[in-house]
Amino acid sequence: MFQHLSEWWTNRKRREVLSDVRGERQALEDTLDRAEMNGIPRPPAAATYLEQLAALEAQIPTAARHELDDIAGKAESLGQLRAYFYPPREIDDAGHLAIDRMTEWAVPEAIVASLRARLGPKLGSADPAEARSALNAVIAEHDSWSLYTDDHEEMTTRVAWWLLSIIAASLLSAFILMRYPWLVLLGLLSAAVAGSCASVITKIGPLDVTSELEASLRRVPTRIGTGIAASIIGSGLLCWGFAPIAFQSKTYFDLLLVCATPGQGCSAPSILGLTAVSALLGFSERVLTWLNERVPTSR
After folding, report:
1. Checking CA distances to 188, which of 82, 139, 159, 195 falls within 20 to 30 Å?
2. Is the pLDDT reported for residue 298 higher than 50?
3. Nearest to 56 by CA among 7, 23, 18, 26
């Protein structure tokens, strides 16, 4: 089973890299065609680059998974060299269009502004060599952010779906566990997990620098653990009456006591109320702060 899954993942990766390599090759071909339409013949180096891209494409069917990233990186580097074959009259437009596209991807404004300030004037330079060098830098930055935005979207989507699955499973288990008096506390813990995961989903970081995304992902277990602890502590404070909450004239303690006492029975509204409170405490740390502020007041 694991072998088939590994093969499926490798073949999927091969298809993605094959598409990337062909895209870089096509982009280079299109640039060379535009140059010829402007009366600029193909330089010998262009044929060499196209041959190298074709060779990389031929390696993909037999390449191991760890080699595919190297192939994609080499193809991207070769594709970026198309900047040196652009017709002079198209360099300025191509560069600014690439920067505008980065803006559409919600790349941080500071990075886009810095790119415009550093390379914008050079794109319109009368010296073709300087303009093409600036265009190459813009394309490199554009391709880097293109890859990063794809990875960011894939990663955040995967994390969100995992968390959503945990939330659904936790809530379902909480509803089931609370039907049994000896499992009520486990039900509260399960609801706390659901609330903590819901809190993490709402705080998944927007598109930003790589280090901040990695730091945000590293904080996911910490946030979940903090939410669970906050829910347990908050539930304890509610049981002690530091912040009495009424449920149809019953306090949180009364409701929990009925559900945890064999033979009493825990009704659906009671299960829903206990689950909601536990999940809310795990979802928002501000609720715990509010309860903590009431501790000295109640003494």
Report:
1. 159
2. no
3. 18
